[in-house]
Amino acid sequence: MLVGSGVFKGNDYSYGDDYIGKCAIKKAPPSNLTRWKDVAINHHMMRVLDDLSTSGAAP
Questions:
Q1: Closest to 9 (Cα-Cα) out of 27, 24, 25, 21
Q2: Domain ranges for the chain
Q3: Which helix or strand (DSSP H or E) is residue 41 part of?
Q4: Which of 25, 35, 33, 29 has the alpha carbon at shortest distance from 3?
Q5: Tell me: the pLDDT tens digits for 4-56?
Q6: 29 vs 50: CA distance, rounded Å
Q7: Residue 24 CA to chain centroid, in angstroms?
Q8: DSSP letter (8 states) at residue 27
């Protein structure tokens, strides 16, 4: 659902997104809570860096 939602940034956005994309096509195992926490933190850190590097980024 996430990959097809239109808000997924793509596998190249971060290694967390790459893992999500691979899970969607069953090329990676669903793993455990620790792995998903790592995936989420990685995605959000990339998002913050993107926002900070863009002038006029939303707060």
A1: 21
A2: 1-59
A3: helix 33-53
A4: 25
A5: 888 888 999 999 999 999 999 999 998 999 999 999 999 999 999 988 888 66
A6: 28
A7: 12
A8: S
